[in-house]
Amino acid sequence: MDYLISFLVGGAICAIVQVVMDNTKLMPGRIMVILVCLGALLGAIGVYQPFAEWAKAGASVPLLGFGSVLFKGIKEGVDKEGFIGLFKGGFTSSAVGISSALIFGYIASLIFNPKMKE
């Protein structure tokens, strides 16, 4: 059942984003920033964590989850280290995800030999 819920929630988030992309003049980069900020905002008001516990990977994998992780890291960093935690917290909480994305992206570029568009 967890797989089904994750699939449906993640698919719903992606479908909503696709509708926004198709019906507005917002560029994809701006939509991505909006999603990260929305995830951080929902994490700040305490709504995102219960939702992510229910939806599992369907809520934690999209960019909304990344924003929530950044907020949680910043909050913990400020609690532990004060003002400097404001700058360090987000990096330490999301370092594994960012590092793995870079490593797997590099490996994929070696395997699939990407070419520039003309």
TrEMBL record:
Superkingdom, taxonomy of origin: Bacteria
Record key words, sorted: Membrane, Transmembrane, Transmembrane helix
Protein's recorded name: Stage V sporulation protein AE
InterPro entries recorded: Spore_V_AE, SpoVA
Source lineage: Bacteria, Bacillati, Bacillota, Clostridia, Lachnospirales
Pfam entry (one): SpoVAC_SpoVAEB
Transmembrane segments: 6-24, 31-51, 86-112
